Each structure stands twice: as C-alpha cells, then as structure tokens.
Amino acid sequence: MIQDPSVQGDPGCSRMVPEEEVAAMGELEFGYRESQCLNIAIAGSNGKSSAAACLKAIMESGQRET
User: Fold this and answer.
1) Helix (H, G, I), strand (E, B) or coil at 13
2) For residues 18 and 40, is the Cβ–Cβ distance under 8 A?
3) Is 25 exposed, middle or buried, given 0-12, 13-18 or 19+ CB atoms closer than 10 A?
4) DSSP character for 4?
5) What is the tens place of the pLDDT at every residue in 5-39?
6) In angstroms, rounded to a whole number, what is the distance separating the alpha carbons of residues 66 and 51?
7) Are 26 and 3 in contact (CB under 8 A)?
8) pLDDT at residue 59 tops 70
C-alpha cells in the first residue's frame, strides 16, 4: 500500500488490510525499491540546487548517465 503524502491523517484503508499481509510505504521508498539505478537523495534547507548541480557534474565526468 502506497501512502499518498497529500492525504492528511489516516484515511481508514490501512485498517482494512492486516499489517502482516501488506507493507505500507511512502512514494519515495516505493520508487527506490522498484528502481534499478543509483539513487542519491539531497535534503536540507539550503543549497540543494547547488549540491545537485555539483553532483551531476561529478557523475557526468565519470560517464554516469544522469
């Protein structure tokens, strides 16, 4: 079950399926688990765009597709 970040609180559907049968996760975790590529997360209050641009340049210099 993928949790939608736009839904505030518990919509009730999580009580419909026993926890041991279905894993609940957020969209980012689902994408990470399903992807076959390198995932790098950049978080924080300031400097994300600069850090992402720098990381892109580093990855491209190593012939990594971005």
Assistant:
1) helix
2) no
3) middle
4) P
5) 676 666 566 566 666 666 777 788 888 888 888 88
6) 14
7) yes
8) yes
Residue in this structure with the two tokens 């996760």, named with its chain if needed: 25
Reading the block at residue 39, the tokens are 């995932």
- What residues have CB less than 8 Å from 13, skipping those under 6 apart? 1
Task: Please count the helices (runs of H) and the strands (runs of E) in the chain.
Answer: 2, 2
Q: How many CB atoms lie within 10 A of CB 1?
A: 14
- pTM for the whole structure: 0.49
Judged against a pLDDT cut of 80, whether residue 2 lies above it is answered with: no
Look-up: residue for tokens 């688990």? 33
Which two tokens mark 22? Answer: 């279905």
